[in-house]
Each structure stands twice: as structure tokens, then as C-alpha cells.
Model the fold of this input.
Amino acid sequence: MSAFSSDPTLGDVRDATGDQAEVDVATNLLTGTVRLSILWTQEILLSPDDAARVAQSLLRAAEQGNTVARNRGHMGPPEPTEA
Done:
């Protein structure tokens, strides 16, 4: 089971040249880190509308990640302390 939660609103974002490259934005629900993946290639060309959708997705993931990070101490095991 993955700790990452992908943004389902990006499922139809594809490379503007017709290639099958895709973008995935996901938040690690354990640590709050945000992953930006470009699938099937090393780069992707986006239409302006799709670029705006990816930017909005990154903002949502950042907000979700900040929430996870703030709550992390309350949800997980206590942090080790030095003796």
C-alpha cells in the first residue's frame, strides 16, 4: 500500500504534442512531502490550461502536506528524545 495520495483531477493531463506522457502530483500522507512525477518521459509540454491545473494541484498538495506535517506529532509515535 502506498503512502502517497495522487490528485485524481490530473488523470487526463497529457503531453501537448500528443505523446502519452502524464503528470502526477501526490502527497505522502505520512510525512506531508509532495511528489511531482512526469511519467513515461523526462519532460512534458503542457497547454496553458493544463499547466494551470498542475499548478493548482501542487498548491492543494502543499496545503495537504502542511496539514499532515502539523498533525504528524499527534498521529504518529512520539519523537525520540535525547537522554
Residues 75-79 have pLDDT under 50 and may be disordered.
